[in-house]
Amino acid sequence: MILLAGDLSGKKVVDLGCGTGRILRLARKNGAKQVQGYDFDLLGRVFCAIYPIPCTKKDFFTADLTNFDVIFTYLFPEIMKRVEKELWEPLPAGKILISHQFPLPNIKPDEIWQKGIFKIYKYIKP
To answer: What is the largest CA-CA distance in the chain?
Structure first.
C-alpha cells in the first residue's frame, strides 16, 4: 500500500481505521511529515501510542481530511460508499486515496495492484 502512494516526503498522511498504526509507521519511515490515525478499537490505539502514532477515537466522517495529502483505508463496502460521497467528493485536486481490498463504488481507480486475491486501489483526485 505504501509503495502505491509514491514519494511521501513532506506529505501529510491519514489512515481511516488505522488499527495498530502499521501503515502510518511505514509512512513516517518513508518521510511523511505528519501522520494521523482514526480508530475506535482500544487495543489498536494502545499499539499506536507505543510507537507513538497519533490515533484518535473519533468518527472520521466528522473530521476535516482536506488537509491530508494521502488517505489510506481498509474499510468494508458499505463504508466505502460513504467515503466516496462524504469524504472523496469534497477533497481538493491532487489528493490520493489508497484502499485495500474495497474500491470506491462509482469511481474508476487510477491504478490497481493485485497479488493473488488481494487488491489495492489508488485514486488521485482530479
So the answer is: 38
Instruction: Enter the CATH code of domain 2-124.
Output: 3.40.50.150
- 5, 14 Cβ separation under 8 angstroms: no
Q: What is the DSSP string of 9-50?
A: TT-EEEEET-TTSHHHHHHHHTT-SEEEEE---HHHHHHHHH
User: Cell for 37?
Assistant: 490515525
The single-letter code of the amino acid at 104 is L
pTM for the structure as a whole: 0.94
Give the chain's radius of gyration (CA, Å). Answer: 13
93, HSE (Cβ side, Cα atoms, 13 Å): 1
Q: Domain boundaries in the chain?
A: 2-124
Residue 118 pLDDT grade (very low, low, confident, very high; cuts 50, 70, 90): very high
Q: What is the pLDDT of residue 67?
A: 94
* Tens of pLDDT, residues 22-38: 999 999 999 999 999 99
Kindly tell me the number of DSSP H helices and DSSP E strands found in the chain: 4, 7
Which residue type sits at 42?
L
